[in-house]
Design brief:
Blueprint lengths: L23 E4 L2 H11 L3 E3 L3 E4 L4 E9 L9 E9 L2 E7 L9 E11 L5 E7 L3 E7 L4 E5 L4 E2 L11
Antiparallel strand pairs: 1-10, 2-7, 3-4, 4-5, 5-10, 5-11, 6-9, 7-8, 8-9
Protein name: DUF2948 domain-containing protein
Organism: Jannaschia rubra
InterPro entries: DUF2948 (IPR021335)
Length: 161
Amino acid sequence: MADTTNRTGAEDARFADGEDRPLRLWATDAEDLQVIAALCQDAVLPASEMTWRKSSRRFALLLNRFRWEGGTRTAERVQSVLAAGDVSSVRGQGILPGDADTVLSLLTVEWEAGADAEGVLRLTFAGDGVVEVACDCLDVTLRDVTRAYGAPSGRTPRHPE
């Protein structure tokens, strides 16, 4: 069995630690965001579940994300909120915000750092849709808000090479 202690001598988290507990993650640097991006890959949502609150400088998506941390168990999804704080503007390409009939599939989430702490959070969707969220700093959270449920397709998403 691999050693799971980190540099401080404490034990690192494992997927098994989150088996039946909701995820609550916070990213403040690009490395943290990679973890959130991996967990959000293949999440689906209606375009109507994407909101930007200009007055509170917050952008959020209500996702139906695949539970990658579930391992080899039955294919499951869980509703999660992916949110960015300190948002100054949002722009999209190839996406009609507010359209409940358009289902989006999230491929990746990336951070493009700017000159100082600011940067752009880029969400790329299947079908060439992109949302760019300009932020004063990287402040992204992922929080499960429901219990896991069986994926309607019953299958694990696949990505052919």
